[in-house]
Amino acid sequence: MAQVTLSGIRKRYGSVDVIKGIDLQIHEGEFMVFVGPSGCGKSTTLRMIAGLEDITAGDLLIDGVRANQLRPVDRGAAMVFQSYALYPHMTVADNMGFALRMAGVTAAERSAQVGRAAETLRISHLLERYPRELSGGERQRVAIGRAIVRKPKVFLFDEPLSNLDAALRVNMRIELCRLHAELGATMIYVTHDQVEAMTMGSRIAVFNAGGIEQVGAPLALYDRPANEFVAAFLGAPRINLVSQPQADGSAAHRALWTLLADGRPDRVVRVGWRPEHVRVVAADTGIPAQVVLAEHLGDTSILYLRVEGVTELLHAKVAAGGPHLQPGVRIGLSARGDTVIGFDQHGCQVS
Amino acid sequence: MGDTTVSRLGAYAMVAAGGLIMLAPFYFMFVFATHARTDIFRLPPPLLFGHDLPGNVAILISRMPFWRNLGWSLYVALFSTVLTLLFCSMGGYAFARFEFRFKQSLFALVMGTLLVPSFMNMIPTFMIMDALGWIDQPRALYLPGAASAFGIFLMRQFVATAVPKDLIEAARMDGCSELGIYFRIVLPLLKPALGTLALITFIASWNNFIGPLIVMRSPEMYTLPLALRSLQSPVGTEWGALMAGSAIATLPLLVLFVLSSRQLISGLTTGAVK
Ligand SMILES: Nc1ncnc2c1ncn2[C@@H]1O[C@H](COP(=O)(O)OP(=O)(O)O)[C@@H](O)[C@H]1O
Ligand SMILES: [Mg+2]
Is B45 an 8 Å CB contact of chain A? Predict the structure, then answer.
């Protein structure tokens, strides 16, 4: 268990600033998720914490001790790679015990500790196998087991579930949460998948273009995003962003704006409207809209709607809509509760 | 159906003929090794094994320190192989997985040496070995080739496919030293390529004629190809003894090849297929 502090962390490759100054405090025992689109610098940040990448500027503190210059092993961090990175020529037991062997732990003690970790992950029956004889999910468990055995101060995960199929991913998600509760260890988890971020994180740091846009608890970020980027990144389908209509905007657009933005400060030039807060009503009531595409998922239906004068299609997530909601059907829209988020011209939230 | 059978038979016949043509010199080397010089020049020449092998070996031993030459051949080939494996795998690993200044230019330089015809090296090699005082020393044979450009290239390609970056970083996270990573992770994963390179290097050293010709002066320091050459003279070449010596020289390679042909082929193709 450890506390990790990043202050003013920067990374530069040649002449390119990849990480442009990150300040972040990761608390003891926290499950911190780094989420963001591909290429925004999540892995680079994680690898700087691990010690696999030099830190160009700034301070990395682990438990209050400056760790910029420490070797990976001295930082007490263990990493789980997306590719699992199991040593192909070693058995599962040897893979898991490798770090202990490097640390000079005796064979007997090693096998005891590997055995305990294997039990936690329910892979005791795999210990004598080679990585090539394991399925993807099993390899993933072994990779996590290898990290656990070292009893690290902090666990680092770089998209560990991306190579698994959907069903297995859900299982491993639950498993990792259980593991976090059981070990009470500090974990930093990188993903580009907002569902993983929302379901696993104690807190989420939303990355964008080499910086952090916002840090906070999942639901806090979802309900009160600091800006349009965070609002748009979290939630599927994406939040609807409706701009203020021009003076010559269509009647429907202006009616929609009045519905969503009425009573808000003048600074608000755009509003965010979550798809689940869109209510579908009869065609002659509410804002007139037309269904462009409907995805009936059984429990819910996702509707793609055109409102005359609004450039982007609106997304609506409604309770199983029934067969009458087909492309071309005209409906009316109204809002569900006062849940609209206002943004100013810079994309920052206006409360 | 008849057509394909005929064409298949034709193909078999052609392959068989090709095989025979390639095997014939080999076969006659063994046959002539068992005949005296005079028998070999009879018309028609002997096609089957004779009884003069002991006589031929006796001539061989009287004309040169044969077992000593054989010993040097083995010694040089083994050292060459071990050193080549070590340096080429290290070099290939460095070029494949490390970032350092002038990496691209250095690699280009290494590859460039492949373009220099080997006979261009003969005189410089002699001068350098002479300056070092290594004439008549086996190390003049195994040290210069210990980091061969081809070996480094082969290893670099293999490391690029068989040793992912994540694996090296995982080992680094696990507290393995850089040298430890090379010995415990990289080398074991390079086994197929190491086998291939070992075979190629051993054979090249074993058959090397020009190298010892340049740096070896005394007949008791000769390796086999050079020593056997000394049996040839314009007038009275002992063909039987020469063939016996050649046959004995071939045996280690035959054994090596039988033991490792599968490995050799898989090592040459894995990089390409995966
Ligand atoms: N070794 C490198 N040299 C140059 N640029 C790099 C290197 N590694 C990563 N980058 C760049 O840094 C940026 C962030 O990469 P990364 O941290 O891997 O993103 P993420 O994990 O969020 O997808 C990318 O634009 C990538 O091209
Ligand atoms: Mg990444």
Answer: no
Q: Does B101 contact chain A (CB < 8 Å)?
A: no
| pLDDT tens profile B145-203 | 888 999 999 999 999 999 999 999 999 999 999 999 999 999 999 998 998 899 899 99
Binding pocket residue ranges, ligand 1, CB within 6 Å: A 13, 18, 36, 38-44
- Cβ–Cβ gap A52/B173 under 8 Å: yes
CA distances for A231 relative to A225, A264, A275, angstroms = 5, 18, 12
Distances (CA, A) of A239 to A229, A292, A303, A314, A340: 10, 17, 13, 9, 10
Question: Among the atoms of ligand 1, which is closest to the Cα of residue A14?
Answer: 4
A65-66: strand order across its sheet: A16-26, A4-13, A57-62, A65-66
Residues of A in contact with B174 (CB under 8 A): 73, 98-99, 102, 146, 150
* Ligand 1 atom nearest residue A42's Cα: 22
Using the mean position of ligand 1's atoms as its centre, give its distance from the Cα of residue B107 in Å.
25
Nearest one of A52, A56, A76 to A64, comparing CA atoms: A76
A348 in contact with chain B, both atoms CB, cutoff 8 A: no
- Residue B272: pLDDT band (50, 70, 90) is very low
d(CA B152, CA B92): 5
**Coil, helix or strand at residue A247:** coil
How far apart CA A267 and CA A270 sit, in angstroms, is 9
Q: Tell the CATH topology of B64-230.
A: MetI-like fold (1.10.3720)
pTM higher than 0.95 for the full model? Answer: no
Domains in chain A, CATH or no CATH each: 4-225 (3.40.50.300), 240-350 (2.40.50.140)
